[in-house]
Design a protein that fits this description.
Blueprint (H helix, E strand, L loop, with lengths): L1 H13 L5 H55 L4 H34 L8 H12 L4
Length: about 140
């Protein structure tokens, strides 16, 4: 941008005797150069911002990895370890709920179907003797 702008300004100063139309044309070129230069500058700024953002993200990842490695070395659980434990805990809680439901069903079945009472051996001997026609 600066080279073409500089050349345009040099032309303006060298055209002191030229017609006004030529000066207006040259001023239009300068204006276009400045506009396109602003667009290029804006584009460059966006690229710089994007590159800076990626760099910050990369540094953040490196710091996080180093902190996780240090915490692991000293025995502190990382977020991944905690997430894994949470999944295992949820699975165990589901199994416990299922076992409680099965236990409740088994208890309700047992309450509905009474087991036969075992007879007293002495009473059984008297009943057997009565059936045989023996003495009572």
């Amino acid at each position: 941008m600066s080279d073409s702008t500089r050349a345009n300004f040099d032309n303006v100063f060298s055209m002191a005797g030229d017609s006004g139309q030529r000066a207006r044309d040259l001023a239009g070129k300068v204006r276009e150069d400045l506009r396109s230069g602003a667009d290029r500058l804006r584009s460059g700024t966006e690229q710089f911002r994007s590159q800076g953002s990626r760099t910050i993200t990369d540094i953040g990842r490196l710091v996080r990895a180093e902190v996780d490695a240090g915490l692991t070395r000293i025995g502190v659980a990382t977020q991944a370890d905690i997430d894994d434990l949470n999944l295992r805990l949820e699975h165990s809680e589901e199994e416990i709920r299922e076992l409680r439901m099965r236990l409740a069903e088994a208890e309700s079945r047992a309450a509905r179907k009474p087991e036969p009472l075992e007879a007293d051996p002495a009473e059984t001997a008297v009943a057997d003797a009565d059936e045989l026609g023996g003495e009572g």
